[in-house]
Design brief:
Elements: E1 10-14, H1 22-33, E2 39-41, E3 58-60, H2 67-71, H3 80-86, E4 88-89, E5 93-98, E6 106-107, E7 110-115, H4 120-123, H5 125-129, H6 135-157, E8 161-164, H7 167-177, E9 182-183, E10 210-214, H8 223-230, E11 237-240, H9 246-252, E12 257-260, H10 265-274, E13 275-280, H11 288-295, E14 300-303, H12 308-311, E15 318-321, H13 326-338, H14 343-350, H15 355-371
Parallel strand pairs: 1-2, 1-5, 2-3, 4-6, 5-7, 7-8, 8-9, 10-11, 10-13, 11-12, 13-14, 14-15
Helix pairs in contact: 1-15, 8-13, 11-14
Length: 379
């Protein structure tokens, strides 16, 4: 493994630290690889993102003074281009974690972008909004999108090199920005807690077991399809996450589905430990939850799409279904229950996605950027 390039001033940039998700975990892994790096972001809400950030040097935009926006980053969309363009980073190399904004931060050095996806609300607006979005949101996005695309593509040109977390995102970067990108799997930072904290709402299901869906509650995650696949069955499902779809899902879910949110890492570990399998029907750019489940020896039932194809292996760690339809999910769970699973092999698979391997790649990226004079040598 390469040593950290200590002679260089390295900074980290991220869109906004206002939630707990895979992108924020990538930032934590970057900070672990470069513990002296300052983290730059537009909005930072310590109470709703991972607590580890409280011990780090996090610099924010002026917009962060508005408490409502810290707690509702989607409402800040019209202002985020201005906030992002106003961010200035003094560093030799900036490692950018972005799905829409941080690649526009100005810097005195060079930018390497770890792209979770080009902005969904610009290039996949139907998936982002979902069927339940009102006309006001659709009209606002229709008005803003043309100018935002110009701004976004200009921001992409300011970056020296792009990395994608999966093959599907690599192809999306090429389509949106006409830029090549290397695939670099995101790390799965998983510490197996020997004494995980019980989730009280689910404690009575611990002995029988349950299926687990951990997801932000957004339209393209298709959590409603997962819930519907359990409707009318004697199977149990725990949905863990928060997002704009939460109220609708909670109002229509059957009694054999429990929804929880804002859990500690220890409580999430408890859910994995007591689950039978992870279930996900989302159009996922990077399939993180199957890796986290695998680290606990749990297989997955997954949509055959996107990042899941990079992080799970059919027959070894997962069963796939072809469309996010309740009947197909139900049939895939039937196949899962008829199959035999090797826990040791599942855990070994998860070990491939380690912080150490990710850090080694980051050190190579920083060294390359520091020693290369022209962008054409980087791709």
């Amino acid at each position: 493994m390469h040593a950290e390039p200590s002679r260089l001033r390295v900074a980290i940039a991220h869109d906004y630290l206002t939630q707990r998700g895979g992108a924020e975990k990538v930032v934590l892994s970057m900070a672990k690889a470069f513990p002296e790096a300052v983290i730059h972001t537009t909005l930072y809400d310590p109470e709703n993102t991972y607590p580890q950030f409280k011990d780090m040097d996090v610099r924010v935009s002026a917009m962060n003074r508005i408490g409502f926006l810290r707690r509702n980053h989607r409402a800040a969309l019209p202002l985020l281009p201005f906030a992002s363009s106003s961010m200035s980073i003094d560093a030799d190399v900036v490692l950018v974690s972005s799905s829409g904004w941080a690649h526009a931060f100005r810097t005195t050095g060079r930018k390497a972008v770890y792209c979770h996806s080009p902005a969904r609300w610009l290039y996949q607006e139907q998936d982002y909004l979902g069927e339940s979005a009102g006309w006001k949101k659709r009209a606002a996005l229709a008005v803003l999108a043309p100018l935002l695309k110009i701004w976004d593509r200009r921001a992409a040109r300011s970056c020296e090199i792009y990395f994608a977390n999966s093959r599907v995102v690599r192809d999306r970067i090429k389509t949106a920005y006409d830029r090549p990108a290397r695939v670099l799997p995101a790390p799965a930072t998983i510490d197996i807690d020997p004494n995980p904290e019980v989730v009280p709402e689910v404690a009575h299901w611990a002995e029988q077991g349950f299926y687990l869906c951990i997801s932000r509650l957004l339209a393209y995650k298709n959590v409603d399809a997962v819930i519907d696949s359990f409707r009318g069955t004697d199977r149990r499902l725990v949905v863990c996450g928060r997002g704009p779809e939460a109220e609708r899902l909670r109002a229509t879910k059957p009694d054999n589905v429990i929804m929880v949110s804002d859990l500690t890492d220890s409580q999430i570990a408890w859910l994995y430990e007591h689950s039978s399998a992870v279930v996900a029907a989302s159009h996922e750019d990077y399939g993180l939850t199957p890796i986290e489940g695998a680290a606990h020896g749990k297989p997955s039932v997954l949509l055959r799409w996107g990042g899941f194809l990079d992080t799970a292996i059919e027959g070894l760690t997962a069963v796939y279904f072809d469309e996010p339809e309740p009947s197909l999910i139900r049939e895939a769970i039937d196949r899962f229950e008829r199959s035999t699973w090797d826990t040791e092999k599942i855990i070994d698979h998860a070990a491939r996605f380690s912080d150490e391997q990710f850090a080694a790649q980051l050190y190579d990226i920083v060294d390359t950027l520091a020693s290369t004079e022209t962008r054409k040598d980087l791709v």
